[in-house]
Each structure stands twice: as C-alpha cells, then as structure tokens.
Amino acid sequence: MGKINETNKKQQFNWFALAIILLPNLIISLNTYMLQVALPQIQLDVDATFTQAQYILSAYSLGLSALLIIGGRLGDLFGQKKLLVLGLVGFLLASISGALTSSPDVLIFIRLIQGGFAACIQPQVLVLMRQEFKEDDQPLVFGIYGVVIGLGFTFGLMFGGIIMSANIMGLGWRNIFLFNIPCCLLVLIGMKKLDIKTKLVSVKDSSKFDWWSVGLLVPSILLVINSLYQIQTGAFYLELLLILLGSVGIVLFFKIERIRKIQHKSVVVDTELFKNTYYNKGLFTVFFTYVAMFSLFFIITYYAQYGLSKTVGGTSLIFLTLGLGFIFSSLASSHLLAVVGKSILLVGCVGMIVSLASLSFSILVMPNLLSPLNATLLFLYGGFLGATTTPLVGIVLQKVSVKTLGIGGAFINTVMYLANVIGVCVAGLLFQYFLKASLDNASLKDYQHAFSLSLWVISCYLVVATIGCNMMLSKSKLN
C-alpha cells in the first residue's frame, strides 16, 4: 500500500512539473501575439515610425530564432533547469524594462533581448518533457504541449485586446509587459519544488564552449532573418545579397563544426544529429507545415481587416473559430495517436488540404469568414492542424539520441520561426500580386479573388508537407 501511495504521489508530482515547465512556453507564445493588437497605440505613445513599429513586433522573433540553437546547446552543457531559470529571470527583467521605456529604439532592443531569453527557455521545455515522463505518457504530454501552443495563438490577440481595454492604472500597452511579472514569479517559485538535475555534457567540456563559432552563427542568422523581413520594403537586390552573405556564414559555421567534431573538440552543434535521416525528414515536414500555417494566419488578418472591414475583435473571433478546432483535436491527439498511429500526420495534412480547397471555392460565393459554412471549414482546418502539429514535434524527436536531444529540439523551434518569417514574406508578396491593386483601393471582389488564390498556394505547401510526412514515416537511417 505504501509503494502504491508513493507511486501515485510521484505521478502527481510529474503532472505538477509539466504545468510548471509548460507555463513559460505559454508566456512565450502569448508574447508573440499580444503585442500585435497594441502596436498602433505603442507607435503613437513612443513616437515611433511605421518601420520602427514593425521592428518592435518582429525583434522578439528575431532574438528567438537567432539564439534558439545556442539556448539548446547551453541547456545540454549546464542543465535544462538552470537555463530555464536563467531564461525566466532574464525574461522578467526585460519585461519590466519594456514597461518602463518610452524610446522606440530602446523598446526594439528590449524586445530583441526578451526574445533571446525566451530562446533560453523554449528548448529546455521540449527536453524536460522527454526526460521527465515515461514513453507511454509522452503522447499525452506532447498533446498538452500542442494545446498550449493553440492557446497562445488563439487567445493571444484577444488577451492583448482585453489588457488594453482594462487599462489598469492607466498604463495601457505597458500592462502587456507587466502581465509577465506574476507569471514568471509563479514559475520560478514552482521550479524550486522540482527535483530536476539534468546535465548531458561534463563541466570539463563546458569550459571549452566554442564561443567563436557562436559569434559567427548568431550574426549570420540575424542577418538572414532581418533581410527576409526587410525584403518587402525595397532594396530587393541588396537584401538578397545580405541573405546570401548570411547563408554563407551559416554554411561556414557547420563546416567548422564538422572539422571540430573530427578533431574531438567541443562543438556547439553535434553534426551527428543530421546523420539521422528520420529527423531530417521531420524538419522538412515541420517547415512546410508551419509555412502553411503562418501564411494562412497572415492572409486571414489582411482579408478580414481590409477586405471585410473587421475590427481587431472581429478578426479575433475568426481566429477563435479556427483555434477551438485546434484545441479540441490537440486534447484528443494522444487518443488519436494510439488508435491511428503516426499516420495521423498524413490524415491531418490531407484534411487541411481538403478544408482549404473547399474554403477557396466557398469564399468566392460567401465572403464572410464567420458565415456558417466558412466558419465550419475553418474549424475543421484548425482540427486537422491540431491533429498534425500537436504530435509532430514529439514524433520527430522520438528517434533522436539523448546526447543531441536539446539541440534537436532547438533546431525544430528555429525551423518554426524561420517558417513564420518566410511564410509571411511570401504570403504578403503573393497576396499583393493576386490583389492587383493597393490594399486601400481594392474592392471586396478583389480580396475574395486574392484570398482564394492564396489558399491554393498554401494547399501546395501542405502537399509538400504530406510528402515529407510520408518520407519520414517510411524506413529511415537512424543515428
């Protein structure tokens, strides 16, 4: 009886640990979307230009994507719990600083730093979920992880609007930064109760950390991603040249890492990870799945606010329809995975393609995205999206060795943020081209036509993702 009680107590403690580990991931996700609804007011209050306002929003993703790989490696070296605590403390201080500043340039810098500390947090979450839970529990654990992501994008815009409307103490948009303080403190208090002592590389090796390679990788990633954001604003060929330059830096980094590995020196990225063809095909699948997702989110926002003249609240309701489908399927994903197996990824991709193809025809007849038919199709798309993305990360990481688990998780998240940047850039260019008029001068018919054609492009991304799923689930060479 004593052993049974002890087992139950341990199981309850593990679920408590999951709640504490996943809360910072929810904070990171919410901060990606909450600030967007407040951006016009921030621009006015801090006297920022339109370009500065864009950077206030995007600097967070820039910091995240540039440092995720480093955050994953540092977690492997010094322990995931230490890096998680460090990231939370840094994120907390950056949030306080963001609430106090009135300079647009300082706010951009703070958002970049905030994203950097978020990059210390996110890779550790994936590793700790793998290490702290039994293999039988992991489908449910990663299902909850998917729900957290769904909550972030479903309620991020709405929650940002609620905070702005509440205007506590007359602080307006600053409350979005201050909201992070109690959340971070709650997690830090909870972390003290967690008995997590993971360290995958010896302290001796950590003293030989290759900071020179980091100095090459981070600026190269920043250069590529920043140029992708800027490519729509003009100077196309210059930005293309900078993307090429940054790409050369990234390729050079991996060549240096391969040489250091052969020489038995400490490396930032263990290139053994990419000998796992299963993992490589998983990255391919993740990229195209998320390019499709972020592209759709982007064109929904523009179609709703410019084509349908929806308010921020009305646009949020559209995302809520999609998000509810995502959350329901995420909650059921562990059961679906047990019944259907990994083929759930193929079912989800095909379901998304059918939903979007149907919506592309429906939107030409019925422009309102909240009409019964269109809302149902968005709900179904969200359901198939949840059925795909919720188990996807866990399935990709399933066959990654423990020694490369942290960096493997970091690469997945980096690919997701790159998919965000590339998806939005391409969707913006194509949507404008399909529109054949400026945003202010285009008619509703123009918007319907552009939205419908954009859905077909997104469906093509999902066809490629389906091919990636099929390749991944076929026999692959494992590390």
TrEMBL record:
Question: Domain Major facilitator superfamily (MFS) profile spans what residues?
Answer: 17-477
Q: Which UniProt keywords apply?
A: Membrane, Transmembrane, Transmembrane helix, Transport
Organism's domain of life? Bacteria
Annotated localization: Cell membrane
| Membrane-traversing stretches | 12-33, 53-71, 83-100, 106-128, 140-166, 172-191, 211-229, 235-254, 283-304, 316-337, 344-366, 378-397, 409-433, 453-473
Its membrane topology, per UniProt?
A: Multi-pass membrane protein
Offer one Pfam family short name for this entry: MFS_1
What SUPFAM superfamilies does the record point to? MFS general substrate transporter
Q: What is the predominant subcellular site recorded for this chain?
A: membrane
Annotated protein name in UniProt: MFS transporter
Instruction: Name the source organism.
Output: Vagococcus proximus
